[in-house]
Design goal:
This protein is mostly helical and about 375 residues long. It has 14 helices and two strands; from the N terminus they run αααααααββααααααα. The protein has a two-stranded antiparallel sheet with strand order 1-2. Strand 1 and strand 2 form a beta hairpin.
Length: about 375
């Protein structure tokens, strides 16, 4: 049987040159990235659209029902509360886009603060030494989560739940063992405290309004995470591993390194939050942080991240944290019973998830 000749190349059997195919080439498919789409269609494809609409609706609502909500001092308080959540919600969102969870984030923040405080106090060292040791300890926790995930193949839910329980026990046990109480000693009179407080827990005055420096940390993390997701190769890797690990590995994405890096990013943000917790109050309660991990995840989901991975944005997670901040403080400014706060949060979470699902379907229908 004679093999067919290849157009414009060599005969598969005797190697003789063959004439090029005279037929006109088929038109190349249009590059999807170069297709111009209306602004409305592009907005519908943004994962944070539902959260932005929800945030605007919540802002207008509390502006109408709470007289003090629009005061500069009130808005500053809302932004501060939102930033303490948003610093963690942003890296948690990236981790969820990468297809994983971390249930140890809330306790990890407290562990970071405890490590910094107890090392500085027990070693009578400059507080910056404690801050550095705390960074290493917190990154080690993130590395442990990432390595355990990639080496064992266990679900991240199980691994980080185990880390959550271990850290909860360590926080309480070590604090009572060293301090004989559930609260660390005050380090406000130690060397380096004032400069560390300026970095992690100071107040800036802008236009006559006091703003906590955590807002600056929050915005910096959002900008860095957005740049990584949209402008770097690592961002493509994060979306790829969240969309499908096997497919990502097949095209050469370093799946293990990407996931370990995401856990290290979460640990770095936990270190920032932990240092703010310590230097804002001088001492740390060992039982703090339990339950906050669910709020970080909820903020990311409200911001448009899918629980199944592969979809979401850092801006959306930041807006999700802002929604939490407005709801939390808006209820207080409206003088409502705060006992209903968790009910409103649960309702918002469900509504946001349904809205995001609807928007995603509409976006897919416009393709």
């Amino acid at each position: 049987m004679t093999a067919p000749a290849r157009p414009g190349g060599q005969d598969a059997q005797d190697g003789s040159p063959q004439p090029a195919d005279s037929r006109p080439p088929a038109p190349a498919a249009a590059d999807e990235r170069l297709v111009h789409r209306p602004l409305a269609v592009r907005l519908l494809r943004r994962p944070e659209l539902g959260a932005v609409v929800g945030a605007l609706a919540l802002f207008v609502f509390f502006a109408l029902v709470a007289d003090s909500f629009l005061r500069p001092s009130s808005l500053s308080t809302v932004l501060y509360f939102s930033s303490t959540l948003g610093i963690m919600a942003v890296p948690v969102a990236l981790l969820m886009i990468g297809g994983e969870f971390d249930l140890s984030t809330g306790v990890m923040v407290t562990s970071s603060a405890l490590a910094s405080s107890m090392f500085s106090y027990q070693m009578t060292a400059n507080t910056w030494v404690g801050v550095g040791v705390s960074l290493l300890v917190t990154l080690a926790i993130g590395l442990f989560n990432g390595v355990m995930l990639t080496r064992t193949g266990l679900p991240s839910f199980i691994i980080t739940l185990g880390t959550f329980l271990m850290l909860t026990g360590l926080n309480l046990g070590l604090t009572k063992l060293i301090s004989d109480k559930v609260t660390t000693k005050s380090i406000s009179d130690m060397e380096g405290f004032d400069s560390a407080k300026a970095v992690f827990a100071s107040t800036l005055t802008l236009g006559g309004v006091d703003l906590q420096i955590t807002i600056v940390w929050w915005l910096l993390l959002v900008a860095a995470a957005t740049w990584i997701l949209l402008r770097t190769r690592v961002g493509n890797w994060i979306f790829a591993v969240g969309g499908g690990v096997d497919a990502a590995r097949a095209v050469g994405v370093p799946v293990a390194r990407t996931k370990i890096g995401l856990y290290l990013g979460v640990a770095f943000a936990a270190w920032i939050s932990g240092q703010h917790l310590l230097f804002n109050y001088d001492a740390v309660q060992s039982g703090e942080g339990v339950g906050n991990e669910l709020i970080y995840i909820a903020a990311a989901v409200i911001g448009g991240c899918l629980l199944t991975g592969g979809y979401g944005s850092a801006v959306g997670a930041a807006v999700g944290a802002l929604i939490f901040g407005m709801a939390n403080k808006g209820i207080i400014y409206a003088q409502w019973d705060p006992d209903w706060f968790k009910f409103f949060l649960g309702a918002m979470l469900l509504l946001a998830t349904l809205l995001n699902a609807w928007i995603r379907k509409r976006a897919e229908a416009t393709r």
